[in-house]
UniProtKB/TrEMBL annotation:
Keywords of the record: Signal
Domain of life: Bacteria
InterPro entries per UniProt: Rap1a (IPR041238)
UniProt domain Rap1a immunity protein: residue ranges: 25-123
Lineage: Bacteria, Pseudomonadati, Pseudomonadota, Gammaproteobacteria, Pseudomonadales
Signal peptide region: 1-20
Name of this chain's protein: Rap1a immunity protein domain-containing protein
Pfam families, per the entry: Rap1a
């Protein structure tokens, strides 16, 4: 968990030029795939990259926004989160899984992260 926090902090301090290039599904997939070894607890040499921090920051922001707004949405737009908290690692894994199969990679990264989380926690 500390490693994911470090990755998120690195993302917060990156330059605007890096942020400007971080907009599509292909970039998001590449950046979030780099986070998966941290989620798995693998020992990584060199520490997280700015791109990996951007992934964690974006996914965490989308997840927290969705959780905050969920109770205010009509039922057809809700996400059915489990009673326990969804970890950032689980959300990143959901984003990677979704991006590996979707044809919507030209969509902006935040929307894709939202679609991925909704897909991972559907209402039945």
């Amino acid at each position: 968990m500390k490693t994911l926090l470090v990755v998120a902090l690195v993302g917060m301090f990156c330059s605007g030029s890096v942020v400007a290039g971080f907009t599509g599904g292909n970039a998001l997939l590449a950046q979030c795939q780099g986070v998966l070894p941290y989620v798995a607890g693998d020992e990584i040499k060199g520490g997280p990259t700015i791109a990996e921090g951007m992934c964690v920051g974006l996914v965490e922001g989308v997840l927290k926004t969705m959780q905050s707004l969920n109770s205010h949405l009509p039922n057809e737009f809700k996400t059915c989160f489990p009673e326990r908290s969804v970890t950032i690692g689980e959300a990143v894994q959901a984003v990677v899984d979704y991006l590996r199969t979707t044809e919507l990679r030209d969509t902006d990264d935040a929307t894709l992260a939202m679609f991925a989380i909704q897909d991972a926690y559907p209402c039945k």
